[in-house]
Request: fold
Amino acid sequence: MSIEKTKFTNRLLVLANDKYFLGQLKRNDDLLKITRTFNCANLATVSLTFIGTFGFTFSDSSELASIDSLKFFGEGRVPEQVINNENDIYKLQEDRILFINFISAAFFGRITARKQTNLIGALYNGQDKITGFYTEQGMVAIQRTELTARPIEEKVEALSSEAYQNYCLENSEIDDAISYIHHLLQRQNEFEYADLKSCMVMNYQAAILHNQQHAGASLALNFSVIESLIGEIFHIYGLIQGKTIKPFATQHHQKLMVSKCAFKKMNLENRVKTLNEADLIGDYLRQRLDFVRGKRNKLMHKGERVSPKDSGECQTIVRDLWALCIDTPFELNMSWVYLR
Reply:
């Protein structure tokens, strides 16, 4: 019986979007040339390439750092430390996947908001879509698998079309999106009620599901985000006794106050009503919130159908709530094709 110890990988690479290219291509062999490298709050260093891969090197000093991976060889009962280690590896990878998709959501949500266009080409990367990589002479080398190679190859094929130029981001757009990521990494530390990172990833997942016309799943996910952001708005704008207004609470409002106990007992309908009375949520947004709340309740309690139009409405509502929490342009709206 023996236990083998190896260091788990600290590098993961994903293709973050299947439409956008990061910059202008000068030579065909520059597809995987590193165009930007930036640090994310000492959690990871991110390397971007023209083709649109995001390579994450996780810091040894962060909660996403690599740990030892244990493998048991022999007969009999697997030692408890090996079982616990396997659970730790799963938890680490789940946290890394959340972080990776948060960076993708923040980056492209900022890009589309500034372009005032729908989000296109969004990819949600799970455990089945990540791969290892290393860097050499300013280039990214990928440990190719069938799951990662094909999407990249399809994107390379798109370069033969003149239309690809429409999806080449300018340097200023890339730099702005990176600055926005830094902004959000700071802002998440100032949230008290909602988990900004998880909410943004759920919103990102919901956008992709809406685009695929999985309307019920999209609306259900986004409704969880709505409930969390509504609660956070109370904290941001100091509407709960003992809470102070955050510096980024920029929207004019009536200074209504509720006790901590009253806030905890409020259902979503009453919270929305209170924010409406405080002039933070207008009458039209309140009506839309009441509409999707009814849709969500019928979906969850009666199994009633939700349409893509409904999930799209929910996606827009989340965008409007983000504006109260982040105070800078951000949008994850995705369109879907309706054939006549």
User: Anything to note?
Assistant: The beta strands are 2-7, 11-15, 34-40, 44-49, 53-58, 68-73, 133-136, 139-142.
